[in-house]
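debug: dumping io for the single-chain case to check the tokenizer round-trip. Nothing else runs in this session.
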Amino acid sequence: MNKMYLATILLFSIFTSSCATQGQTGAGVGAIGGALAGQAIGHSTEATLIGAAVGTMLGYMVGNEMDKYDREQLNHVYERGTSGKATAWRNPDTGNSYEVMPQPAYAQPETQKVCRQAEIIAVIDGKTERTYTTACRDDYGHWQLQNK
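debug: decoded output
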């Protein structure tokens, strides 16, 4: 596999890795995104495996970087954020910054739970990552990020 494919897989995996509330969830979604990117770009088993490995690592890192303060801010955006309007914050402890643009709420057809999608742009250690998430209210009224 040439270096161009590897660089492309790495770049694409960064953009498809999940920003989740826990590292394991981010790793799982990142692995799926990375594997799909690797297969689409490299058209080989080797490319798929490299994409999955890179996606797992990046998804885990992003998921772990979002601490309690950030999760509270994200929950606030899902609960009160104006659809189509970005809300931004900077974590005073980590220096990481986030910008979240929520979409209108809707009822999930299967469960009737209230859900919202959002675009999240995170700057972690100076690197910008963009992801799209969906959160639904649980039985206690808290927003929970959904695995895709």
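debug: round-trip ok. The chain is about 45% helix and 25% strand.
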